[in-house]
Amino acid sequence: MNIVERSKRRVIYTILDGLLSTAILLLSIYMFTHILNGEFNQDHASVIFSLLTVARAFQAGLKWEKGKRGAVRLLVAAGIYLIMTVILLIFEMTETVFYILAGLYALEMIIGRVFAVIQSKRWISRILNALPGFVLLYLAIESAIIEMEEKESLILMTIAGTIVLRCLFHIIAISFSQIQLNILMKIIRRSYALEILFGQMMLIASFSYVLMYTEESINDYWDGLWYCFAIVTTIGFGDIVATTIAGRILSVILGIYGIIMVALVTSIIINFYSETKEIQEEEDRAEKAHRDEKRKKKGTKGESKEGTE
Q1: Is the pLDDT of residue 108 over 60?
Q2: pTM over 0.85
């Protein structure tokens, strides 16, 4: 399979994965808002967990070529979600069924965190992957000491909230999955973007403090930050306006700096995609040369066999 075919397949898989995650995210938000209002729909929950089953099985298929350990983790999660879906479809929501479902979801979270910690190579990644497990443990301890009705509501909100957060982070990961960070960082270092960005941050931090005392419409430091952000990004919401001479001078300086930053970001994006395209073309040429070499070896072997005969 050449580079073009792999790219097409990757795009299709990414779109399908994103659509599944978006559907689960929207349904989970809907369920979370209903739980806040004291309502829980069992059929709605079964639809969410059935989609989670399909999504995890699909993601396991995508991971299988890269690493079987990650694929196994996703398959285990799909199996647990499938069991939860079957329970929701067959049984009525009693106290026993409720705690079985909560235990299965907690088990899936713990297994996922353990696998993620084992696979992580950096300590910061291990800490970040282990953090949701500690949050889950805290909520479990908290739910054990409160009344029954509040306990069920807290557990349901925890399950719905974690599904929302996990889908949201997964969608963000999909959005940035095709960005090659090594190339991007090389372009950023070459264009001195970090130094320029640091200078912009210093300007925003200092100008916000000055504007807080010079402008009547800016009541506190956070209003100043919001105003500077609107100027630098050239958005200009219009909810806060500079009226003094000092405020307008600072706004002009920030606006000019913002235009420079927009031009810099545009050039970084263009350079990034052009270098990525060159790398893909080089990989395509290398793969083509490798295939041609294989054909030549096969042809040489065939000729040698004929000569032997």
Answers
A1: yes
A2: no
